[in-house]
Write a structure and sequence with these properties.
The protein is 41% helix and 11% strand. By secondary structure, it is of the alpha/beta class. The radius of gyration is 30 Å and the shape is elongated.
Length: 296
């Protein structure tokens, strides 16, 4: 596709070249007819003589040779510093560092795993219920009339495929609390049309308990754990908690914890049914077919 300032399209170039080569028009006459310079008419007609109609297509403006390009050994050193020490262009100090990294297709530092320095591999299970991520977010309470501040615990279950989410605000993160939450969340996902097959949690004590494993066994759900010191494995629930706190918990000043909690159901409905999710191209409910009638 020609750039915005190009006076001729591919069809116009071909027409110009044929005037000069096939119809033997003078360059100046053909240039005036197409309202371009004689130099442009000469360039396209000569290319037509050599390459025919195929020569009228756009070409890259990149030069065939780059004598000032950074030497290969310097490029190798830059790439080595990037992978071994996680240095960016500012730290490496080479003036062409950014061009070298871009040319090599190197991932941004934010997209690399801190432990292994390998690119983070993002995945998504193909069907709702194939995997549900579960996590807990500790949130400071807003004091009601001078009452003790304390903490609340957001227990969240989010479907890997659809990002459909279910959260309860509970007083602690004990094993019986977590197990009871999962029973209610499992029933909620079932009512939404998702058959949960596997559940993924971190290695918190409540999820390592026998009660947790027995509860999952009774529900027919396979238990999976994240690798130690790798919270990004459960990144979907971690990212959801960040979205939740930004858009609900801290979105506006609340006078009391009661007022903040009262706003949660409306936010949840908007998140699941109306909020555009950038990774999905629509709201989570759009990926769960039988929820279409509930999208109001």
């Amino acid at each position: 596709m020609p750039h915005a300032s190009a006076p001729l399209t591919e069809r116009g170039r071909l027409r110009l070249a044929r005037y000069v080569v096939d119809d033997e028009w003078p360059l100046r006459r053909a240039a005036e007819r197409l309202q371009v310079s004689p130099t442009t008419a000469k360039r396209w007609s000569e290319r037509y003589r050599v390459e025919g109609a195929a020569g009228m297509k756009d070409r890259s403006s990149r030069p065939h040779h780059s004598p000032n390009r950074t030497r290969p050994q310097v490029e190798r050193q830059v790439l080595h510093l990037r992978t071994s020490r996680r240095w960016g262009p500012a730290r490496v100090g080479a003036s062409t560092c950014h061009a070298i990294l871009r040319r090599a297709g190197v991932a941004r530092l934010a997209h690399l795993d801190r432990a292994t320095r390998e690119p983070i591999r993002r995945y998504e299970h193909p069907h709702p219920g194939d995997l549900v991520h579960i996590g807990i977010k500790k949130l400071g309470n807003i004091p009601d009339g001078g009452a003790r501040l304390g903490y609340a615990y957001l227990h969240t279950a989010i479907d890997d495929h659809s990002r459909l989410a279910y959260t309860e605000i509970l007083p602690d993160e004990r094993q019986d609390t977590a197990a009871a939450f999962w029973q209610r969340a499992h029933a909620w996902f079932r009512s939404s049309g998702s058959t949960v097959r596997r559940v993924l949690t971190d290695n918190g004590s409540c999820y390592k308990s026998r009660l947790w494993h027995d509860t999952c066994t009774q529900l027919g759900v396979t238990v999976k754990k994240t690798r130690p010191y790798r919270p990004q494995t459960n990144g979907k629930v971690e990212r959801f908690h960040r979205t939740m706190t930004d858009e609900w918990a801290y979105a506006k000043p609340n006078r009391s914890e009661t007022a903040r909690r009262a706003a949660l159901p409306a936010w949840f409905h908007a998140y699941n049914h109306h909020r555009h999710h950038t990774a999905l191209g629509g709201p989570p409910a759009s990926r769960v077919l039988n929820l279409s009638g509930q999208n109001t």
